[in-house]
Specification:
With about 475 residues, the protein is of the alpha+beta class. It folds into 3 domains: about 150 residues, no CATH class; about 130 residues, Chitinase A, domain 3 (Roll), CATH 3.10.50; about 100 residues, Chitinase A, domain 3. The chain is built from 16 helices and 13 strands. Helix 2 crosses helix 3 and helix 7 crosses helix 16. The protein is globular and about 80 Å long.
Amino acid sequence: MIRKIMLLALCATTLLLTTEQAAAQERRQVMLDKVVAVVGGSSILHSEVEEYATALVEQRRQMGYTSDRDPRSEALEALLEQKLLYNQALIDSVEVNTSDIAARIETYIQMLIDQEGGIAALEAKEHMPIFAYREMLRQQYEEQSYAQAMKAEVVGKVTVVPGEVERFYNRIDKDSLPIIGEQYVYAQITKFPASLKEAQQRTKERLLDMRERVITGQTKFSVLARMYSLDGSAIHGGEMEPTSASYFVRPFAEALEKLKPGQISEIVETEYGFHIIELIDKKGDLYHCRHIVLRPTFTRDELMQPSYQLDSVADLIRRDSITFEEAALKFSDDATSKYNGGIVSNSDVLERMGVYDGARLTATRFLKEDFSAQGGKSLDDYNALIRLKVGEVSNSFQTSDLMGNQMSKIVKLLEIIPAHTASLKDDYIRLEEMALQQKQERVYKEWLSDKIRSMYVYIEPEYRSDDFENTNWIK
């Protein structure tokens, strides 16, 4: 379920970037633009439809497939849906992380600047000053982010029970059952550098020094944030949009609530690292603040020390001086797996995503695509596993956890499950994902149809199409 949601978000982001590239080409052409549709308080231009259609065709060409639908009709319907979601998100006061949006925009603009050879070259290509281009992107990214958040809120309320999964499975024609790709079951032993406490202390001392420099007027908080903070807000001097304290993780929120405007917090430790926070102002329950976040860093010798230790442990395991299960319990720093023989599960991903029904959703079988930023397991793990035979233990390798904390690891390949036709007994969690996705799609389509009927929608007659999937767009 989690992987599906994350992959959907990734695909949406990829399509947006492709659309921007198509837009750059389109803007170089002289054309008469006009409004072709209105949804709520948002309009859709002819150029937007053309740009989106071009992006759809190009994306499909790269993926090696075509569609029977007219790309312009498909593009217009997708834009109609996005505008509706955006307007409904504003009505429902859905929140999005605008700091993250700003960071994505700056990353994208910097990539374009590097490609074109400078700001002046980019401005000449886009026929607009950089600040106008940045604002145009901000509006587009923000609209898409609100739309995604609104859809996520609708489908996020949908759940399935075991009976629904079984009915879903029984309804599928046995010749049409999905094929589950090759899966890996493995165990791990992880070790953080023994000097973690020393590295944490060094990080705290750096932040204390920064705090002192700001308080004594030697430098500005925003300058230090731009130079050193490991957060997307660094490009804005650590500043974040006014947000409710409930949006932040608890230690951060608690520190923020104690501050008065202009004050700087003591060091705050969260799952993201160590912070100092400056409260700019507070209006109602909205906190406007900036922060600097750092994570412990290590010398090469500090990073290699646990690797040497794990190589020794791996050697003991290979010589049958100790079992992998005993070694995991004795040496591993991973609290999730050490008490279970080191067997790796997706429980850390579930916890990170705030999913609390772990007993039902926990999985220990991983597809190749699970070893990615979207799947939640490190590609380093996969690269080590594919070199092993079942029962073998790897040499140590450097990797990091979900929060970016560096560590060393050894893994043992326990089982390779060949690609096979899905069965209710062996692939319940995968089938549950499919059943949930199907139900989410049905609920979302019903919700969308209701909103189309209740929201103002106008499409110019020549742009109305029989090719729309949802016929309610035509009023």
